[in-house]
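Many introductory courses stop at the sequence. We go one step further.
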Amino acid sequence: MTLLRVDDLRTYFRTPHGVAKAVDGVSLHVDEGEVLGVVGESGCGKSVLALSVLRLLPMPPAYFAGGRVLFMGKDLLAAAENEMLAIRGNHISMIFQEPMTALNPVFTVGHQLMEVYRTHRHHGRDEARRSSIEMLARVGVPAPERRVREYPYQLSGGMRQRVMIAMALACRPALLLADEPTTALDVSIQAQILELMLQLRRELNTAIVLITHDLGVVAEATQRVAVMYTGKIMEEASTVELFDRPLHPYTRGLMASVPRAEATFETEALAEIKGVVPSVAALPPGCHFEPRCPEAVDVCRAQAPPLAEIGPGRRVACWRVTHA
């Protein structure tokens, strides 16, 4: 059953340099209990997409130029603010990129976690405290009775991230938006956090949108992948299909740029996608990837390719693929 459906979403920003099309015509869906990976370089619109779902962007300068975000059949873009307050943190939760800045430094960890239970579950203070301690223990925080009295600065990066996961999953949400949940953590802690998220997904049947630039995380944790570039989806496929046969030149470039364990600088140069991501306020005509694409032809420069379905669950926006 489809839990979330995004139809032709357009999230734009008014800037001194013109309109920045951060999310430009994105359509995707997430099924119950599914893990969807959203990948791409920094600045491609991944985080703005997640923030758009929860309507957490400052308006102005942001505004929705079109589209719908359907959650359990309800259009969130048309919902009243009091309806969104009941949905955020309750039915849809989000793990933000940086736990040090996402947690309020002047309140204890317990205070911030208890607020979730008191707001959405209407628990009294003592009940909220008990629930908070239980949730911290569930996500692997040692000595939770002591941790609830501590401030974020007293916790390590991995512990702060576990607190963020506890807050996000406290109300057993149907959908979790995880924005770079393992960024700035060392490799061993990354693996623990990822396994924790997947374990809780299995227990709670929570669907996850995993936003990342780490293809290793994508390969390990997701069932489907959407590849974004300059606010658009370039390719979408099952994880197995995408890694087995990437079709879009951008997707192939991302995968080629991942260092191989057996390679050394003496034997193999690190692959790169030449050029830089263009500003979403000054996008090139035609395909946005054309200036960096080694396979571009005349039609790529003149006209943007549609995101065409070329098989069950497989979509790609590339003239070379759809008109081969």
